[in-house]
Design brief:
230 residues, alpha+beta, elongated, disordered C terminus, membrane, voltage-gated channel, inward rectifier potassium channel activity, transmembrane
Length: 230
C-alpha cells in the first residue's frame, strides 16, 4: 500500500472532473449566448408613419431599434423589413397571400447598421412602396403584418443570431415621429442616450400625404420596392 499515491490519484481525479465541468460550461455558454443575446435587442412597441425629418417631408414608416447592452458588441449587423399579407378565402378561412420585402437599403448596403446607439429604421413610402397611398383609415383596415429582423455576429463568440418583431396595423401610429433620445450633454460635452425616451413619440400636425384605396395599392405595387434606410 502507498498512501501518497492514493492521495495524488484522488487529487488528479478531482482536478480532472473540475476541468471537464469548466470546459462543458464554456461550450454551453457559447451555444446559449446567441439566444440570450437576441433578448438584449429592443424594438419600439409601435411603428410610426410621419415625415422623414424636418427638412424631408416625404412620408416614411419608422421603427426604433436599440442594443441595450454595452459589452458584447455586434459585427455585420443588418436589418430587414417584410410585409406579410393575408385574406379571407371562400371557406371563410384567413390564409397567407404572400410576403413582400420592404427595402430598407439593402440594394445600396445602407441596411448594415451600427448599433452603438439607438437608431431609427426608415422605410420611405414612395411610389415603389407597398404602403404607398394608404391613409390612416386604410392602414387600420389593412390585412397585413410587418415583420422586422435584425441579424448580426457576436464578436466575443463569432456566432450569429437573429432578433425579430412584428407590427399589426393597429400598432402603427399615423402622423407621429420618435422623439430624439441621443442628445449632447452640455456639462460633459458628450452625447448621452436617454433610454427613458425610447417609446416617446410626438405628433406631426402638418403631415398630410396623398392617399388612395387599398385595392389600388395592391394593384400598383405587387412586388419588390426600392425605398431606403436613412
Amino acid at each position: 500500500m502507498c498512501p501518497p499515491a492514493f492521495i495524488v490519484l484522488c487529487i488528479q481525479l478531482i482536478f480532472g472532473v473540475l476541468l471537464q465541468t469548466m470546459l462543458a460550461g464554456i461550450v454551453i455558454a457559447k451555444v446559449l449566448r446567441p439566444k440570450k443575446r437576441k433578448q438584449e435587442m429592443k424594438f419600439s412597441r409601435f411603428a410610426v408613419v410621419g415625415p422623414v425629418d424636418e427638412h424631408d417631408k416625404r412620408p416614411a414608416l419608422m421603427i426604433r431599434v436599440a442594443d441595450i447592452q454595452d459589452k458584447l458588441y455586434l459585427a455585420e449587423s443588418h436589418v430587414r423589413l417584410y410585409m406579410a399579407r393575408t385574406r379571407v378565402n371562400e371557406r371563410n378561412e384567413r390564409e397567407l397571400v404572400g410576403v413582400k420585402d420592404m427595402n430598407v437599403g439593402y440594394d445600396s448596403g445602407l441596411d448594415r447598421v451600427l448599433l452603438l446607439w439607438p437608431i431609427i429604421v426608415r422605410h420611405v413610402i414612395d411610389e415603389d412602396s407597398p404602403l404607398f397611398g394608404m391613409g390612416r383609415e386604410n392602414m387600420i383596415r389593412g390585412d397585413f403584418e410587418l415583420i422586422m429582423t435584425v441579424e448580426g455576429i457576436v464578436e466575443a463568440t463569432g456566432m450569429t443570431f437573429q432578433a425579430r418583431t412584428s407590427f399589426l396595423p393597429d400598432e402603427i401610429q399615423w402622423g407621429y415621429k420618435f422623439r430624439p433620445m441621443v442628445l449632447l450633454s452640455n456639462d460633459r460635452r458628450q452625447y448621452e442616450v436617454h433610454y427613458e425616451r425610447f417609446e416617446e413619440i410626438e405628433a406631426c400636425d402638418d403631415f398630410v400625404p396623398e392617399t388612395t384605396t387599398i385595392e389600388e395599392v395592391e394593384e400598383d405595387h405587387p412586388l419588390h420596392n426600392a425605398s431606403g434606410f436613412l
